[in-house]
Structure formats: structure tokens, C-alpha cells
Amino acid sequence: MQTTFLGVGEACDPQLLNTSLLMWAGPKGDTCILLDCGFTAAHRFFAHTEDPDDLDALWLSHFHGDHFFGVPLLLLRLWEMQRRSPLIILGPSGVEEIVGQAMDLAYPNVRSKMQYPLDFREVGPSDVLELLGGQWRFARTEHPRENLALRLGFGGKSLYYSGDGQPSPASRELAAGCQLIVQESYLIEHEVAGHGSVAASLDLAREAGGERLALVHMQRDERRRYARIFQAEVEKTPDLGLLLPLPDDSVDIE
After folding, report:
1. Rounded-to-integer distance, Cα 150 and Cα 136, Å
2. What CATH number is associated with residue 14?
3. What mean pLDDT is predicted for residues 117-139?
């Protein structure tokens, strides 16, 4: 599996774009999955592919704007590019209604003109899906709006993506054994209600036995401070492949 960070920032970061991941998976590496699609994600997605039928599935962790307000643009441009194949859209309870409302508000009447069907899959924290050749598992995190962390496995390799929120007991269990853990880490040391921290992310990754930990969705001022000490942090954590990714950075899960 290859994971590209389309963005790594929080909602108001003017430079690092909203956190969103583009995955290529499957035996041939041609299964394309987009994880979250906030304000800035759709444009970055189309910088990585020119084929309107490349994208197989879109995962939405929750319904805050920096994680799904880019969906109307994504769907509009796929229609404009004459996509024909179905698009799977997965998310928490209400995903079909909420995405439909956003689409109709942003671009009225476009849904009725689209040449490709939308295949909505509403999932809950206890669900396990076998889809597109991979296994999809979910768990709630601690966040003001229901947020589902995702464990996505292909060929014995797994990615954990937190979406937003402090780790919960269930999401800690979900992350166990994953080769790559991508965890929202809003502040460096102190947690704020509904958001994680670098310190908590390090604890999660060690507890999970993760090989690599990517810190994303950091508060913009905190990230600038942390970037100045990041190399020292890497040297202090030789047990983890600690990453502070930038937009368009890629990680191979081997």
C-alpha cells in the first residue's frame, strides 16, 4: 500500500491544507481510496490523477467541514470529467443525507445530471467490511461530533487513520499491530477537549506496536514550534518511525 498525504493541516491552517490521505492498494496497487475530503482536498486529489474513474472509494471520518466540505467539488469535477463507474462513499450514520445536502447546496441539480452512481455505505463502530479486496474496521474516538477511526488492511498490511479526536479504548485496540498509524495530534503536550496531542499519539503508537507514526492535524502555531525540535524528537524515539509529513509526502507500507 502507498499512502500520500494530500494535506496534513487543521481546519484553519493556510499553508498545509486540510488533512486528507490518498491510498493506492490491492494486489496490483490500482485500488484508489481517498480518506477525508475537506475544503482543500479535492484540488490536491486531481493533482495526482487525471483519470476520472481512478477513485474507487471515499471515506469520511466525520462531518466537520475540514473533513468533508470538499466532497461537492470532488463530485462536480468527476461529473465534468465524464466519470462513468460507480463511486463508493463510506461514512458514519447519515452519510448519504449529509453529502446530498452539501451537494445540493453547493451545486443544485448536478446530482440529477451525474452519469455515475453513488454507492453510499453507512457504517458503525462495530462493523467489519470486506470491500475492494481489503478489510475495513472502525472505532469511535473522543470528538465533539461522532468520528470513526478507520483500520484499513490489504494483504496483511494495515493503516490506522484516526480522523479527529482523542484516542478511545476502542480506537487504541483498533490501532494494534498497524504498520502505519496516522493520528490527529492537535497540541504538543496538553490535550484539549475532543482533540489529541503528540504525547498521546506517541503513547498510542507504542501501545499498538506500530512501526511508523505520522502526526497530522496539528494546530498551526504548535506545528511550527514542533518542527523546530522534530529531529531531536526522532532521536528520542528510536522505537518509532516518527513522521511529521508535508503535503504530497508518500509512505509505502511494506
Report:
1. 7
2. 3.60.15.10
3. 97
